[in-house]
Amino acid sequence: MNQEPVTYNGYKIFHFGDGFNQTYLFGRSTYQLTNYVATKDDTQAYVYLFAVSTVEAALHNVRLEAGALLEQALNTVKGHLDEGNLTDRQEYTFEYYFEGMVNGFRAVNKPLWAASSPT
């Protein structure tokens, strides 16, 4: 665990990983990854996985700062928790998208970089 958990609306949100500071090869692309686990009442847990494609960042000539990415990822977790529809021990996967002026994390199904993801 990297830091003390963030408390948010009855959840504890724990950050794990290196905070987008390591690059991993999956298939023909490279990604920077991090993850969070949100718990409720010490009985329920929700896993959040985040990835940024370094290839896409280079193709879009975008320089990404780890601190800003972590803040966006944490805000994505909070937003998802607010939406509800949570399944205990479920993995929720998000990938950073580069689309003109609208960049940010979006939910993705069965990404290559999260081979165990059931959705």
Task: Compile the SSE list and pairings.
Elements: E1 6-8, E2 11-16, E3 23-26, E4 29-40, E5 44-53, H1 54-59, H2 66-83, E6 91-99, E7 102-107
Parallel strand pairs: 5-6
Antiparallel strand pairs: 1-2, 2-4, 3-4, 4-5, 6-7
Describe this entry's structure for a reader.
The chain is α+β, with helices and mostly antiparallel strands. The chain has one domain. Helix content is 20%, strand content 42%. The chain has 2 helices and 7 strands; from the N terminus they run E-E-E-E-E-H-H-E-E. Strands 1, 2, 3, 4, 5, 6 and 7 form a 7-stranded mixed β-sheet that branches. Strand 4 and strand 5 form a beta hairpin. The longest helix has 18 residues, at 66-83. The chain is globular and about 45 Å long. The two termini are 25 Å apart. The mean pLDDT is 87.
How would the global form be characterised? globular
Sheet-strand content, in percent, reads 35-45%
The domain tally reads: 1
- List segments where confidence is low: pLDDT < 50 over at least 5 consecutive residues: none
What share of residues is helical? Answer: 10-25%
Tell me the span between the first and last alpha carbons. 25 Å
The residue-averaged pLDDT reads: 87
SSE string, helices as H and strands as E = EEEEEHHEE
* Tally of helical runs: 2
How much is the radius of gyration in Å? 14 Å
Biggest β-sheet strands, sense, barrel: 7 strands, mixed
Number of strands: 7
Short description:
By secondary structure, the chain is α+β, with helices and mostly antiparallel strands. It has helices at 54-59, 66-83, and strands spanning 6-8, 11-16, 23-26, 29-40, 44-53, 91-99, 102-107. It has one domain (6-107).
